[in-house]
């Protein structure tokens, strides 16, 4: 007896469900799982943009089958910073400035913080002594929230680097960005806002803490990214990084 067996060719496709519509998930280095042998969706370097509902379909000559929707929720890194780690970020800022010539008035310093919202902590002409600036940094409160880097960059460029708030013609403008997560509010505007800032003559140094994906960080930083973008694995490593970053030029 001879038994013949024919296996139907089956195509497995994953979709992300957006506003009741479906967008196919393109399989690449970040997304895997469109084969019969390995149909489960695996997301590498998961990002906030991966939040959403996903559905899988399998199609062959016999018809189309569809799974129930699966919900993917990505945690927000910025909400887990906590007071202790936030203090380490402020200490890093103070280390960055400790050798700067602040008391002469040659260097102006301002700080904007951002989470879900944006807060101008102080403008570049609010304080003129090193001690006052350090005290002002220590007084910045920790605000629980998401990561709205785009509006932080926009506020910095449009409301801080102005003549009325301490900006001066002919003086280099430098920004140090500290972030523990990729943007999850207005994320599509983050890189364009950084590009606008750089086009306005603002030099950007970008420092990330614990980022698995540094593409946004590198894109925000001035070129070359190898000299202007830094990523450490923990808040404790900021103290080590400060020695490296202290060699950067500081002037606002």
TrEMBL record:
- Which superkingdom, per the lineage? Eukaryota
Q: List residues of the VWFA domain.
A: 70-245
Query: Which PROSITE patterns does the UniProt entry name for this protein?
Result: IG_LIKE, VWFA
Q: Which SMART domains match?
A: VWA
Q: Which InterPro entries match?
A: ECM_Assembly_Org, Ig-like_dom, Ig-like_dom_sf, Ig-like_fold, Ig_I-set, VWF_A, vWFA_dom_sf
User: Which Pfam families does the entry link to?
Assistant: I-set, VWA
Ig-like domain location is 1-73
Q: What is this protein called?
A: Uncharacterized protein
Source organism per entry reads Mytilus edulis (Blue mussel)
């Amino acid at each position: 007896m001879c038994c013949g067996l024919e296996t139907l060719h089956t195509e497995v496709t994953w979709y992300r469900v957006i506003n009741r519509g479906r967008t196919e998930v393109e399989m690449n280095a970040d997304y895997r799982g469109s084969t019969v042998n390995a149909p489960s969706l695996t997301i590498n370097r998961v990002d906030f943009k991966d939040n959403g509902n996903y559905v899988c379909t399998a199609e062959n000559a016999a018809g189309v089958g569809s799974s129930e929707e699966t919900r993917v929720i990505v945690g927000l890194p910025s909400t887990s910073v906590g007071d202790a780690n936030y203090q380490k970020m402020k200490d890093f800022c103070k280390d960055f400035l400790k050798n700067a010539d602040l008391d002469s008035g040659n260097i102006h310093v301002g700080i904007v913080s951002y989470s879900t919202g944006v807060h101008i902590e102080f403008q570049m002409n609010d304080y003129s002594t090193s001690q006052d600036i350090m005290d002002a940094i220590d007084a910045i409160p920790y605000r629980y929230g998401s990561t709205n880097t785009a509006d932080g960059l926009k506020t910095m460029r449009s409301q801080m680097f102005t003549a009325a708030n301490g900006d001066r013609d002919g003086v280099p403008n430098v920004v140090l960005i500290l972030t523990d997560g990729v943007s999850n509010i207005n994320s599509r505007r983050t890189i364009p806002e950084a590009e606008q800032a750089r086009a306005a003559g603002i030099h950007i140094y970008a420092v990330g803490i614990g980022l698995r994906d540094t593409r946004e960080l590198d894109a925000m930083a001035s070129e070359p990214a190898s000299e202007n973008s830094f990523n450490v694995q923990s808040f404790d490593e900021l103290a080590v990084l400060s020695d490296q970053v202290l060699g950067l030029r500081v002037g606002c």
